[in-house]
């Protein structure tokens, strides 16, 4: 009982600090389903007008469902590529005696620290040469490539924490290196795979600069670019509409984060062995 009483001051403090944020989100939602008189913050009527983008296309913008589908594809395929390549590369760096292994690991960290914005012009020219500019596939490849250094380093750290005895037992039983990796090693690093998958999906879902520069066309537009175009439209600016689209944008990532936040935090607890 004494321990519970000691927790109350911290719980009260966190509750007070969090309350304004919760109230702001509540008012944000309330503002999207009501209308208020000019100059007043108190709503006077309910309305679905601000959610009209769900059943009609906003002039000059693609269908919201096209943008949502593009965003889901962008985040999902990026996540799949990062998981597959990071899992294989991390295992190789952790377990195999590769030439120039230390140099490769150092290069990964440099790539992860390199600012993305400084590469935009070079990436733009490369995609144009390959015929992938203004395509969803092209921007997915770019985003996955930029996320891979972090993913590889994280997976390598988690593989380092797996005892060698597990792998040696599989090899002594006649398993191939591939079987050892898929059947023995991958199950041992499931927390890392889940955490990296969630992190990569969130990074893909929230990406703005790359789709804006490399895939601006309406047919391949993602929700972040859709939102930016709404607020930049001076002729038909509608703040309530912008808020409603913003809520649609954040809800699909808030829900998984609430349920999987513990696994997301596990991404920083991988091994530190060299």
Keywords:
2 strands, 11 helices, 2 domains, disordered C terminus, mainly alpha, two-stranded antiparallel ribbon, 274 residues, globular
Can you tell me about this structure?
The protein is mainly α and about 270 residues long. Helices cover about 70% and strands about 0% of the residues. The protein has 11 helices and 2 strands. α2 (about 65-95) packs antiparallel against α8. The longest helix is centred in the first third of the chain and has 32 residues, at about 65-95.
Q: What pattern of helices and strands is seen along the backbone? A: HEEHHHHHHHHHH
Give a short account of the largest sheet.
2 strands, antiparallel
Q: Under the CATH scheme, which architecture of the largest domain would be assigned?
A: Orthogonal Bundle
State which percent range the strand residues make up.
under 5%
Let me know the number of strands. 2
Helical residues, percent: over 70%
Number of helices: 11
Give me the side-by-side strand order of the main sheet.
Answer: 1-2
User: What's the CATH topology label of the largest domain?
Assistant: MetI-like fold
What is the CATH superfamily classification of the largest domain? MetI-like
User: What general form does the structure show?
Assistant: globular
The helix/strand class is mainly alpha
List low-pLDDT spans. 270-274
Radius of gyration: 23 Å
Write the topology of this structure.
Elements (H helix, E strand, L loop, with lengths): L1 H31 L1 E2 L9 E2 L17 H32 L5 H13 L6 H11 L5 H25 L3 H9 L4 H12 L1 H17 L2 H6 L8 H10 L6 H27 L9
Helix pairs in contact: 1-11, 2-5, 2-8, 3-5, 5-8, 6-7, 8-11, 10-11
